[in-house]
Amino acid sequence: MSALQGTPLPDASPPAVSRVDRATAAAPPRRAPRGTVVATTLLIALLLVPFTPLVLASVSQGYFFPQVIPETFSARAWRLVLDPAGGAWTALGATVRIALTVTALSLVIAIPAGRTLGTRTFRGKRAVELVLLAPVLVPTIAVAIGIHVVFIRLGLAGGTLGVVLVHLVPALPYVVLLSAGVFANAALGLEEQARSLGASPWRRFVHVTVPLVGPGLAVAGLFGFLVSWGQYALTLVIGGGQVVTLPILLFSTASGGDVAVTAATALFHGAPAVLLLVVTSRVLGGSGLTTFGGVR
Q: N or C: which end of the chain has fewer CB within 10 A?
C-alpha cells in the first residue's frame, strides 16, 4: 500500500495545448458583420452603375434618350475597336509602356524621399510637403502649358520621353507621400537589430526592409500607374498629337459622334486599370501580405 502511495500517478488529462488546438480547429470561421457586407455590396453597385450605360451603348445599333435598353444590338463597335488597324492596341501598348516607366521612376525617387520624410524631422519639412502637393493643387492645364514652353526649348515636346517626364509631375506627389506614410509606420528598428546580428546590407534589405514596406510601396506604385494611365491634358499638350495613348484615342473617338464606338473605346480604356486594381487588391489583401511580411 505504501509503495502505491509513493508512486506518482500519470496525468490522465490531455495537454492544455492540445485542448486549445482542438478548440481552435473546431471554431467556425468568423463571418464579416452584416453591415459590412451590405456596405461593400452597395459600394460595388455604385462603382458598377456608371459602366452599365457604357456596356449597353457599346453593343447597341442605336441608343438614344429616353431608351433604357437599346432596341437593336450589334457588335459593330467592338469589331472596330478590337481591329488591329483601328489603333486601339497600339495606343494600349503606348499607354502601358508610359505608365510602367512613370511608375518605376516614381518609386526610384519616392523610396529615398519617402523614407526621409517619414522617418526624420528637419527644418523645412512642412514646406517640402507643400511643394510636393503643389502640382496637385495647381490646375493641370496651367502646369502643362508652362512645362510645354520649357520642353520645346529642350527638344522634349512631341516625344514619349517628354510625356513620361510630364506624367511624373502629377504622379510623384501621390507616390512620395504614400511612401512617406509607409516608412513612418514601419518598424524600421528591426533593420538595426538585424545589423547587430551580423546581417549584410543586402540580407537586411531582402529579409527585413522589403517585408516591412513592400505592400505599402506596391500600393504607392499602383497610384502612380493609375495617375499616368488616365492623363489626357498633359499627354495632349506635351505629346502634341504624336504620342497617342488610350485617353487621346478616347477623346478623338468621342469627337466623331459615334456613341457605340466611343462607349466601347471607354470600356477598352478602363478595363485594364480596373483589372489591375482588383488583382492588386486580391494579392495584397490575401496571401500577398503574408508573402511580403505584412499583417492582414
A: N
Question: How confident is the prediction for the chain on average, in pLDDT?
Answer: 82
Rounded mean pLDDT, 61-80: 83
Would you say 244 and 217 are in contact if contact means Cβ atoms under 8 Å apart? no
The DSSP code sequence of 25-92 is: HHSPPPPPPHHHHHHHHHHHHHHHTTHHHHHHHHTBS---TT-SS-SSB-SHHHHHHHSGGGSHHHHH
Phi/psi of residue 201, each to 5°? -55, -40
**What nine digits make up the cell of 273?**
486599370
Looking at residue 28, its pLDDT comes to 56
Domains of the chain: 56-292 (1.10.3720.10)
Give the model confidence (pLDDT) of 109-150 as tens digits.
999 998 888 888 888 888 888 888 888 888 888 888 889 999
